[in-house]
């Protein structure tokens, strides 16, 4: 049998698609018979940790011993109730997600599908596949939650690393909730691996103590004495209360201060808001053009122009005005040739709605800056904060190109200065822990941030701060020593010019040579300056919103389900 699917912790590999034909003629059961030789497309091979192999039906969960023969699998497919209930001649069956496993089954019905699964195994399987009908099995769900949480707690407790928390607040229905995630660097098979896990999903009741609510999460996970940083955009006024947590002070270099910071998202969103204001007039004109192009007297001509010019109509032309300024600007830029052609072939098209050449140039600059602020071309790349100074400087350099108003320019500078004042030292250290960036590179970035005359003084102060950080981690030698680890890292660390360097792999290799700096990197690279829930995607957020709409789901079930979904899937 080809392509076995091994049972990992998530238990949910992508499934394949199979084709079935309705063969009700001569088949009184009405079952669908699989056509073609590839019966295995409709089963998932699972290998247990003890080596025993099973074939799992993709439609009803029935489990069969895996052998070289497939006749028993074919017989099952000809009588499979779930397969028969689908009906439809020659349909491609979807074999994934809620439709496939949740479908028309309730939790109790699924429990009868295969009695070889224990109740708790079934709960785990249902969660990984997105089954929400668990209300009637609250006790089993909470038992699984407690078991998995204790396993995870024990694992985190034994890790010889520090942890960074990220807190994201969201209003759902009429209540406020916070997500709390943890980031840490684990060493798996002698390789550094950045992990991001959900710890809790908590409701903030009116009048409740926010700090105590947040503080309770790392405490119950038994990592409160190993915290390094907390990222929280929503409650910066709680800085003093959180930084003074008594139970973390004995573990924190440098100087025993917990890093409590806002995320890069917040600064970029403030910049985005200012730039979007600059685009209002342009987007209003583009919106009128979009409305005209989609009108009954112009739309056919527009499609003809697109086809005549050999342009790809990929749906990027909005059907109506949208508040998404990037979509509107990019539509105007992409279909510029079609608009120019349209004015020649359709008299109903208002030529005054076409942007002028200077307006097109402005649209291009604004679109580029907005995409940079969203890090639109960088998804999945910026897992660690070593390149955030570079991001900030590159965006800041582009802002004067689109902001002519001195008030706007002053605003973006104040936003940048505020962010840098609080977190600049840590970001600069993170950058210097990247072997692609040396003193000269930092100097170039500092020229974008500070007055040119002040760059040298800021560089000198940075290296003083870096050395203090190094000493707080137990580093030896003095700042001018050439024979110490510090001196060797300053002068002989093998600069690399590889653009797509995996910084965790590099430090995994260099940890023995630079042990103190490696410990610094292992802490600093966990700080999720850019993201909180981005690691989990919008799917989990939609899941919560959907579940919150179900009035029969109480909060303890909701938190257990959301956390288990994250743990078992990741």
Automatic annotation (TrEMBL):
Predominant localisation class: nucleus
Electron transport among keywords: no
Pfam families: Dimer_Tnp_hAT (PF05699), hAT-like_RNase-H (PF14372)
GO molecular function: DNA binding; protein dimerization activity; zinc ion binding
Stretches with biased composition (Polar residues): 20-35
Localization annotation: Nucleus
Protein keywords: DNA-binding, Metal-binding, Nucleus, Zinc, Zinc-finger
Chain ranges of the hAT-like transposase RNase-H fold domain: 384-470
One GO cellular component, as annotated: nucleus
Lineage top rank: taxon: Eukaryota
Keyword DNA-binding attributed: yes
Ranges of residues in domain HAT C-terminal dimerisation: 486-568
Chain positions covered by the region annotation Disordered: 1-37
Protein name: BED-type domain-containing protein
């Amino acid at each position: 049998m080809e392509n076995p699917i091994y049972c990992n912790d998530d238990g949910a590999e992508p499934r394949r698609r199979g084709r079935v034909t309705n063969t009700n003629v001569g088949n009184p059961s009405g079952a669908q018979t699989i056509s073609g030789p590839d019966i295995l497309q409709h089963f998932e091979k699972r290998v247990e940790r003890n080596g025993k192999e099973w074939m799992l039906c993709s439609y009803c969960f029935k489990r069969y011993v895996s052998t070289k023969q497939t006749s028993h699998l074919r017989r099952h497919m000809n009588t499979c109730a779930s397969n028969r209930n689908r009906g439809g001649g020659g349909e491609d069956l979807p074999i994934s997600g809620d439709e496939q496993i949740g479908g028309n089954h309730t939790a109790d019905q699924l429990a009868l599908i295969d009695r070889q699964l224990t109740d708790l195994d079934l709960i785990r399987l249902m969660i990984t596949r997105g089954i929400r009908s668990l209300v009637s099995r609250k006790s089993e769900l909470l038992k699984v939650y407690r078991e998995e949480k204790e396993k995870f707690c024990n694992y985190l407790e034994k890790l010889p690393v520090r942890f960074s928390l990220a807190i994201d607040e969201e209003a759902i229905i009429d209540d406020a909730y916070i997500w709390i995630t943890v980031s840490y660097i684990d060493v798996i098979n002698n390789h550094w691996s950045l992990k991001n896990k959900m710890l809790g999903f908590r409701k903030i009741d009116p009048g409740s103590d926010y700090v105590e609510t947040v503080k309770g999460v790392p405490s119950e996970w038994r990592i409160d004495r190993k915290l390094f940083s907390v990222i929280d955009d929503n409650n910066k006024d709680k800085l003093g209360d959180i930084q003074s947590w008594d139970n973390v002070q004995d573990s924190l270099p440098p100087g025993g201060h917990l890093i409590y910071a806002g995320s890069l998202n917040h600064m970029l969103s403030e910049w985005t808001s200012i730039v979007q204001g600059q685009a209002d007039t342009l987007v209003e004109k583009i919106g009128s053009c979009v409305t005209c192009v989609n009108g009954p007297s112009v739309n056919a001509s527009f499609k003809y122009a697109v086809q005549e010019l050999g342009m790809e109509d990929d749906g990027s032309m909005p059907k109506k005005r949208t508040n998404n300024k990037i979509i509107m600007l990019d539509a105007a830029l992409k279909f510029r040739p079609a608009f120019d052609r349209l004015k020649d072939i359709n008299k109903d098209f208002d030529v005054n709605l076409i942007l002028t050449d200077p307006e097109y140039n402005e649209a291009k600059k604004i679109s580029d800056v907005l995409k940079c602020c969203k890090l639109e071309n960088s998804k999945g790349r910026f897992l660690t904060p070593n390149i955030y100074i570079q991001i900030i400087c590159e965006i800041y350099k582009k802002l004067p190109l689109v902001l002519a108003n001195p008030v706007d320019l002053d605003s973006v500078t104040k936003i940048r200065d505020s962010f840098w004042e609080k977190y600049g030292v840590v970001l600069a250290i993170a950058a210097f822990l990247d072997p692609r960036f040396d003193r000269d590179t930092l100097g170039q970035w500092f020229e974008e941030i500070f007055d040119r005359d002040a760059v040298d003084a800021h560089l000198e102060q940075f290296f003083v701060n870096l050395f203090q950080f190094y000493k707080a981690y137990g580093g030896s030698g003095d700042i001018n020593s050439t024979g110490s680890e510090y001196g060797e890292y300053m002068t002989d660390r093998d600069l690399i010019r590889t653009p797509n360097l995996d910084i965790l792999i590099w430090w995994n290799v260099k940890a023995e040579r630079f042990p103190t700096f490696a410990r610094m990197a292992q802490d600093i690279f966990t700080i999720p300056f850019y993201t909180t829930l981005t690691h989990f995607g919008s799917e989990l957020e939609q899941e919560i919103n959907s579940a919150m709409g179900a009035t029969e789901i109480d909060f303890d079930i909701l938190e257990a389900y959301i956390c288990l979904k994250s743990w078992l899937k990741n």
